[in-house]
Amino acid sequence: MGAVNEDNAEMDLAGVPVPVAMEDTKPISIDELSPRTGDLPYLGWIPIGALIQNSYRILGQLGEGGMGIVLHGVDERLEREVAIKFIHPKHVDTEELHELFVREARAMARARHPNLVEIYARGDYKGSPYFVMEYIKGTTLEEWVAGHDQRRVGLDDALSLLDQICRGVAALHAVGAVHRDLKPSNVMIGPGFRAVVTDMGLAINLGGWAAGRERVAGTPAYISPEIAAERHVPPQYAHASDIYAIGVMAYELLTGRHPFKAKTVVELLRAHIHETPPKPSEVAPELSDVFDEVLLRALAKDPNDRIESAHALRTALALARERSSESSAPLRIMIADDDHACLRWTGKFISGSFPNATLDLVTDGATALAHAIRDPPSVAILDLSMPGLNGTELTAALRANPRTCDVPIVVVTGVGGARDWRLLLRLGASGFLVKPTDPDALITTIRRLLC
């Protein structure tokens, strides 16, 4: 194991990077924009108001790390807010960090998924490379958890976030990339409780892994045993380090504490390599023991023994949640969709996950409104495009009626986009899913809204 400075005995281990890696990127909190706007200590050469490539107007700073600086801007051509990441000025002439910066942009561009931050463009400004990406108005997972004031996160909220993180990471793995620095500060929570994996500055293509170009990198609280011990693993197990990091986050979210207790970085790395964490249900007795096997498999020391993929992990968590459900309280779930095939499929899947639920299947918005007012559902699943009343109109009507104003609403669509979601969010919709709807994502969303 490489040498690690033990001077700081008391520290926040979750935010201390391995010394041989780049510095940890500070969390990008959109909510902190106001006090930080105008504070650009390293960017005198990019003043507020500057226009880059005749498109991107600089509004302020979002975050800063050892490798890069992220600015808030607006794309004046497309009239949308953006985040723009520049390589840090002190590293502009560092060839290795140039390569890492370009690698991050390419990894983000290859893996298009709602739970991965989207990249729009790449360019160069006065010798400094940059890329333009989606601006997510929200907070980091780290900040969101801290906002609970020592209270454990709700089970279904935690599982909804983990499900989304797994889906984003699975998309990254599907294009042959590995994140290598998954942690709560690298997950944003945006409107509609959408979780987005960000900051792929340490991502590596599996071709580079096979060629032996990987480097020890990551954050000690979430680093896998094989990386902590600097053991080379075959390319087919390279993604296992990401599974381990998600396992650590899952343990934290479901139990309220880290799997290991340590006062120094070295102690923590040794724990990752050698110690077996306590069973989650022993740490949090209110948590069902059906989660023990899932989390401990995700934290297996040997990559070969670990849960095999992000998709397998999200499936295992969903199954554990179904097994842990003790509620037999009757539910009434309304599904409104003029596509009869989608209506039947959605009803069949929901009834399998909620066997005690009464389903109200309707094919137009006007009928859905009448049924909801007569007998308010526990949750309503609405198609965006329907005759009678469309999903937007129906959402507004449900929110305006005192009998249905508090009914959780999930809108699904095969044609809508970000603009529709922003409007629905203002009207009071609780969730927004894209067709073809991922069944596990739908069930996870419903569970979260019912808790």
Automatic annotation (TrEMBL):
Q: What EC number(s) has UniProt assigned to this enzyme? A: 2.7.11.1
Q: Which GO terms describe its biological process?
A: phosphorelay signal transduction system
- Tell me the CDD domains matching this sequence: STKc_PknB_like
Which residues take part in binding ATP? Answer: 85
Response regulatory domain location:
332-450
Q: Could you say which enzyme class this protein belongs to?
A: transferase
One of the record's GO molecular function terms: ATP binding
State the UniProt keywords alphabetically.
ATP-binding, Kinase, Nucleotide-binding, Phosphoprotein, Transferase
Q: Indicate yes or no for the key word Calcium.
A: no
Q: Which PROSITE patterns match?
A: PROTEIN_KINASE_ATP, PROTEIN_KINASE_DOM, RESPONSE_REGULATORY
The record's InterPro entries line, in alphabetical order, gives: CheY-like_superfamily, Kinase-like_dom_sf, Prot_kinase_dom, Protein_kinase_ATP_BS, Sig_transdc_resp-reg_receiver
- Domain Protein kinase intervals: 56-319
Residue positions, PTM 4-aspartylphosphate: 383
Q: What is this protein called?
A: Serine/threonine-protein kinase PK-1
Organism this protein belongs to: Enhygromyxa salina
The record lists the lineage as: Bacteria, Pseudomonadati, Myxococcota, Polyangia, Nannocystales
- The gene for this chain is spk1_2
